[in-house]
Amino acid sequence: MSVSTLTIDAAELNRRFAGAHPAEIVRWAAETFGNGLVLTSSFGAESMCAIHLAISVRADIPIVFVNTGYLFPQTLAFMEMLRQRYQLNVLEYHSQNDPLVWLTVHGESNPRIRQNPDACCAANKNEVFDRAMRDLAPMAWIRGVRAHQSQARATMQIVEWNRRTNCWAISPLLGWSHKQIFQYMKQHELPFHPLWHEGYSSIGCNPETCTRPVAAGEDARSGRWAGMDKKECGIHLDQGAGI
Ligand code: SF4
């Protein structure tokens, strides 16, 4: 069955799933899209929540992992540990750029900071994500976004058509709070990213302008591009990194 032959009444589904447990949403997605379903994961702080939900309904679900070339070594080690422990079907897509060469060519003289993070995200994250989605051409894509994380995410729906990837975007955790994620992780004894224990509540790339730890009481995503207007890398936005 192709996307075009599927009848998806998103408005009805979003009414039905309002307040539903994420497991119910993921089960519906697996039954509806079958092998046409993929998951994206950054293997970040609490990524095991979405991964656990997804592999509970489809053990071999393809998990798209974007490697920008600037990830923390702990993230790569965490991904590898999870891949082996849970037999994950991780599809790792890399930036086409050599990390050091790209910085030099684009005038980024200090690898610890980014003067132009939008350009870096466009070249090293969004291009990779778009290539992965073109390559896999899924019918639907499960993502781990939550409404309270940013203004852009607050406008998202649990089930919505994503023009950029030409597939359905399914956000089973959209309505969950940080506390609910934490409780789910504890209930299922799921591992947190090793840097989570050092105050990194949201983990992207390693420049200190892209990810820093947050203090008690700070918003969980306040350590991402701290002090900048930028709130998203762009892969969850229809228009990409031009933000
Ligand atoms: S998060 Fe930072 S290092 Fe990673 S792609 Fe974006 S700007 Fe570049």
Describe the structure.
It is a single chain. By secondary structure, this protein is α/β, with parallel strands linked by helices. The chain has one domain (3-198): HUPs (Rossmann fold, 3-Layer(aba) Sandwich), CATH 3.40.50. It is 35% helix and 11% strand. The protein has eight helices and six strands, in the order H-H-E-H-E-H-E-H-H-E-H-E-E-H. It has helices spanning 10-17, 22-33, 48-57, 73-86, 99-105, 117-136, 151-154, 178-187; strands at 37-40, 62-67, 89-94, 140-142, 159-162, 167-170. Strands 3-2-1-4-6-5 form a six-stranded mixed β-sheet, sandwiched between helices. Helix 3 (48-57) links the parallel strand 1 (37-40) and strand 2. The model has no long low-confidence stretch (mean pLDDT 92). Bound molecules: iron/sulfur cluster. Iron/sulfur cluster binds at residues 68, 70, 114, 117, 120-121, 124-125, 204-205, 207, 210, 233.
End-to-end gap: 35 Å
Largest sheet: 6 strands, mixed
Low-confidence stretches: none
Looking at the overall shape, the CATH architecture is 3-Layer(aba) Sandwich
- Total separate domains: 1
Roughly what is the average pLDDT, rounded to an integer? 92
Any idea of the CATH class?
Alpha Beta
User: Rg, please?
Assistant: 17 Å
Question: How many beta-strand elements?
Answer: 6
| Helix fraction bin | 25-40%
- Following the backbone from N to C, one meets helices and strands in this order, namely HHEHEHEHHEHEEH
Bound molecules: iron/sulfur cluster
CATH fold annotation? Rossmann fold
Please, how many helices? 8
The CATH homology group name:
HUPs
